[in-house]
Structures are given as C-alpha cells and as structure tokens.
Design goal:
The protein is α/β, with parallel strands linked by helices and 215 residues long. It has a single domain, classed as Leucine-rich repeat, LRR (right-handed beta-alpha superhelix) (Alpha-Beta Horseshoe), CATH 3.80.10.10. It has three helices and 16 strands. The strands form five sheets. Strands 9-11-13-15-16 form a five-stranded parallel β-sheet, with helices on one face. The protein has a four-stranded mixed β-sheet with strand order 3-4-6-8. The protein starts with a helix and ends with a strand.
Length: 215
C-alpha cells in the first residue's frame, strides 16, 4: 500500500502546474547567471551533462530554500543520462519519479534526497555519495533493472530505500552505516551485501538471512 501511496503522490506532483511565484522566478534567473559566472571563472562543468553536451538548467524546476541552498524540485527533461550539477545540495520528493533514466551521477555536495525521488528508474548501477547521511524511504524503490549499488563512506542510515529492486545483486555498505531499516531490501531476492567484518551491515545481513561477503 505504501508503494501505491508514493506513486499517487508523485503523479500528483508531476501533474501540478509550477507553484513558483514571480519572485521565485526572478531568483531562478539570477541563479542561472551565477552558475554561468562560476563556470567561466573555475572552468568546471556546472550544467547538466548529457551525452557529452551541456543541457540548459531549464530541464530542472528548482527552488531556493530558506537557508539559501538550492533544491531540484522536478526534472522536466527527457535525457537518459543525467549528471546532477555540483552546486545542488537537495533533491525533492518524486523529482525524477518514473522517467526513462538509465544513468545517474551525484555530486559530493548532495546532502538530502527526498522520498521517491528516483523511484521506478531504469538505472543498472548506482553510487551514493557519503555526503548523503540518510537514504530515505522509497528513494530508489522499484528500480527493476538496478544490479549494483555502492554506498560510500559517510552514509549513516538506510531506510526502506531499495524495496522491489528485483534485479539487485550486490550492495556495498560502509562501516559508517549504523542503522538499516528491516525492509530496506524487501523483494531483493538475489542481493548480496558487501560489508566489513564486524560492521553493523554484516550483522544486519546475518540477522535477515541475506548473503554477506567481506571485501
């Protein structure tokens, strides 16, 4: 039932017209100019990269939070490969829900990804950066072609994030993880957890009857 709840929530978000006020739109224009200046000064790719070409930030609906951080609220493009710009720190709920996305890369600046943000994608591999302390519920749920996940050191909590990733074969979990919700890998019948000997992840795998290997 939770799966259908998230699906309905995300579909409502996708069908909703832009909630941005004129004031927020002005902020977004200023933000685009700021990114262009940063790119010129530092010679780094700050726009989204798709098949080796830069794509306009217009492919994202963004908002500026109260703490001046930048959040992707919704992805509106149609690319199969997306590299999240390195100045973005937050991705909202359902932002990439059920789009035909096959490759995905996160910057080290990301510290929050909302529930359902990458639910039902066609990605096959995934690396979660250590800057993300909590992998929230349903974040990558039902990514049915996902085979391998590498979670980098720094992540601390894995909620019910990978349910029904039915092709998932291998998940590397660092010793920094100290909490994994019981149904984090529900429906992942082929999965093996790669974890350090004596780590919380190894203990979790043994308790849940999930095969575990030490690196």
């Amino acid at each position: 039932m939770q799966d259908f709840h998230m699906r309905d929530l995300c579909l409502r978000a996708l069908d909703t017209n832009s909630l941005c006020t004129k004031n927020v739109r002005r902020k977004q224009v200023s933000l685009q100019l700021k990114w262009m200046k940063k790119q010129d000064e530092e010679a780094v790719a700050t726009a989204v990269s798709i098949a080796g070409e830069e794509v306009s930030i217009e492919d994202f609906r963004t908002q500026i939070n109260n703490d001046s951080t930048i959040e992707i609220d919704l992805y509106t493009g149609h690319a199969s490969t997306v590299v999240i710009p390195d100045m973005l720190v937050e991705i909202g709920e359902c932002a990439f829900y059920s789009i035909d996305l096959k490759k995905l890369a996160f910057p080290k600046s990301i510290f929050k990804i909302g529930g359902g943000a990458f639910c039902r994608l066609n990605i096959t591999t995934l690396t979660v950066p250590g800057s993300l302390k909590v992998i929230e519920e349903q974040t990558f749920e039902s990514c049915e072609q996902l085979k391998e996940v590498i979670i980098e050191d720094g992540v601390e909590v894995i909620e019910k994030a990978f349910k029904y990733c039915i092709a998932l074969e291998k998940v590397t979990i660092p010793s920094s993880v100290t909490e994994i919700e019981p149904n984090a890998f529900k429906g992942c019948k082929q999965v093996t957890i790669i974890a350090e000997a004596g780590s919380y992840a190894e203990t979790f795998a043994n308790e849940k009857g999930i095969p575990v290997q030490n690196p």
